[in-house]
Amino acid sequence: MPVEATALRSLNSDSLSTVDIAGLINARPLSSFQKEIMVLIGGVVVMDGFDVQAIGFVAPALIQDWHIGPGALGPVFGAGLLGMLFGAMLLSILADRVGRRPVLVGSTAFFSLCMLGTAAVESLQQLALLRFLTGLGIGGVMANAVALASEYSPQRRRASLLMWISCGFTGGAIAGGLISAALIPWAGWRSVFIVGGILPLAIAVVMYRRLPESLLFLSLQKKDHDKLRELLRRIVQDVDPGRDLDLTYPEDVRGRGSFTKLLSDGRALMTLLLWLVSFANLLNLFFLANWLPLLSTRMGFSSSTAVLMGTTLQLGGFVGAIFMGPLIDRLGYYRVLVPVFLIAGLAVAGIGQPGLPLALLYLVIFVAGICIVGAQPALNALASTLYPTEIRATGVGWSLGVGRAGAIVGPVVAAQLVALNWSSESLFLTASIPALLSSVVVVGLAVVVRTNALPA
Question: CA torsion, points 272, 278, 279, 282, in degrees to nearest 10?
């Protein structure tokens, strides 16, 4: 195999080995060691989804227990999202400087302890502070999970693996709802935070013991060859890397973990377009997640039907991520995402159309979930391919961070438009615009990447 031969050139030499690590990972089948890494990362992403949604699960019981109005939790919800925004931006830069592993393990342990602390709060101010701190920790998880998984994934399966891992977020949210429904009547709302703290803390301990640092990140350190040899042996067990490694460095490693590198070396327009599509998609995602049930009741449906509509949206996202990954591996990100966002715009606009039969409305919502919720893991995976190793976590983190700004803006703008008595039809038609814009932006992103011969 020519690619493998290149990746392993001189690998069996008794004296000096030259290893193209990225080529080696691409050339070999997925090893049991790599599969274990994916499972560990997937586990923390599941708990990420659980803990992000935890405040929503406990809100009704909390309101009843503290005798407060629903509006009083607005700052609490906002504090969590703001924490995730800052966490994604700041901790991703740190990860590109000190490593993905310590930041991922540390972020997980930190938000676990914050969840446990939240179980003891006695005021809204304390709750808002703990949700902000929890958000900081959670913000450091997804970008580093995507970066680390990307760097252990062969290119031919990278989109599938990253998107399947990202499904853990939706799976965690679904599981969290079921667990909360069982726990709250039995042990009260505080028990949800206790479970949401203990489980990820246990995962953090396992990750500390079992999760390795990225091979590509270690290679940029130009040191710790013993660790590199050990990890290489676990991926390619049939060869011996030799005593020393003379690693190839195809990338410029200056400015590791630097925000300015995202906007230099011909990457500025690419980065801005990536931020724009991430902002637009998360604006739509959180608008639908927060407002779809409420607007459904406004359109005359029962509360139980409204809840099922919200669940249908998330189920569509789960299915979309599962099937979109292999399609992207075969056709590429741009050929898939451009029509996906076009369909998303039509589906979101269709939700608000009056007179749709209920079965057809469920189908439209399901399609919107596939295209909006399911596309977000694809955008995260795409971001990981657009940046070199030394700024990969920073690139993914800032894309998510700017997207989180959209997650804050979407529900807030919707609330203002509802206060102005906009009809549900007008609201969903307006929400279709960011999706249609995303399709155009992805076309522009593809042109910029190919014109400037940038990675992926």
Answer: 180
Give the Cβ contact number of residue 121 at 10 Å.
Answer: 17
Domain spans of the chain? 31-213, 259-451
If DSSP codes are grouped into helix, strand and coil, which group holds residue 335? Answer: helix
Over residues 220-229, the pLDDT tens digits come to 766 566 677 7
Q: Do domains 31-213 and 259-451 have the same CATH topology?
A: yes
Q: Which residue type occupies 179?
A: I
Q: What is the pLDDT of residue 372?
A: 93
* Three-class DSSP labels, 233-282: HHHCCCCCCCCEECCCCCCCCCCCCCHHHHHCCCCHHHHHHHHHHHHHHH
**Contact of 406 with 283, CB cutoff 8 Å:** yes
Q: Which two tokens stand for residue 53?
A: 């949604």
Coil, strand or helix at 421: coil
The pTM of the full predicted model, rounded to 2 decimals, is 0.81
Residue 439 to residue 451: CA distance in whole angstroms: 19
Q: Which CATH class is domain 259-451?
A: mainly alpha
- Torsion, Cα 161 167 169 173, to 10 degrees, reads -160
Report pLDDT digits (tens) over 148-196: 888 888 877 778 888 888 888 878 877 877 787 788 888 888 988 999 8
Extract the tokens encoding 97: 């400087």
**Which helix (H) or strand (E) covers residue 177, if one does?**
helix 158-187
Per the CB < 8 A criterion, the answer to whether 378 and 445 are in contact is no
The CATH fold assigned to 31-213 is Growth Hormone; Chain: A; (1.20.1250)
